[in-house]
Fold 3-oxoacyl-ACP reductase.
Amino acid sequence: MTPTPSRTAIVTGAARGIGAAVARRLAADGFAVAVLDRTEGDGKQTVAAIDAAGGRAVAVGADVGDPDRVRAAVDQVAAELGPPGVLVNNAGITRDNLLFKMTDDDWDAVMWVHVRGAFLMTRAVQRHMVDQGWGRIVNLSSTSALGNRGQANYAAAKAGLQGFTKTLAIELGRYGVTANAIAPGFIATDMTAATAARVGMSVADFQQAAAAQIPVRRVGTPEDIAHVASFLASDAASFVSGQIVYVAGGPAA
Ligand code: NAP
């Protein structure tokens, strides 16, 4: 018998930006969505938008790098929305600096959220996926995985997530679980707005300069990423696993 696809999704870092767009999209696709961010309050706006569109969502607070909070959050989601079958590891931060100025804390903070966070979340959720015989893991990598000046920590984390994704695909495929990564290029969010501020440019000028370097001559939107996440989370994507999908308005490498 073919397992029934789960209708519960968890999206981390879903208070804003890409995570919020992915959460809204998965809700529109019919998933009950756990909007996970550092605090429950952070996720309220995304939950309200999903409610207003007729979807179902709850806000869940957890630092993805804290194993106790992660375990409690996943238990809460399973109890309130049903066992999760989709996990989007999207929570992220940047602590950019040239290598010689990068502090131990800059390095650890980025590894904490992206690599440790994705590991802890996936370890906590996979048992629900294995029990159901169905699961979809989508990790947010980045074109920075290919190398980016001022981002030694972030590039290492995003490249690490690619190896993590491929290993999950190998280990979990036999249980009906796929794992893929989306590697966005420049997406207009608070994260890239913060980068503009760091380099002393207005957001508009920064985006215009970025767009000039992108083959399709525009920067990306959170919805560009949400479309791809929606496909990778769908039952139709069951034969796509261990892939890194660059979503960057052109070839990334
Ligand atoms: P964003 O607007 O900065 O949103 C990130 C969200 O993650 C925030 O709500 C943030 O909460 C949350 N978060 C951070 N650390 C967390 C933690 N330890 N536990 C729980 N939640 C946490 O970022 P974005 O631009 O949407 O990026 C989303 C993902 O895409 C990230 O993984 C990023 O690296 C990746 N990405 C983005 C771009 C881009 O151009 N924007 C390109 C490539 C990849 P706080 O506000 O409390 O920190």
Remarks:
- Residues 8-185+220-247 form a domain with the Rossmann fold fold (CATH 3.40.50.720).
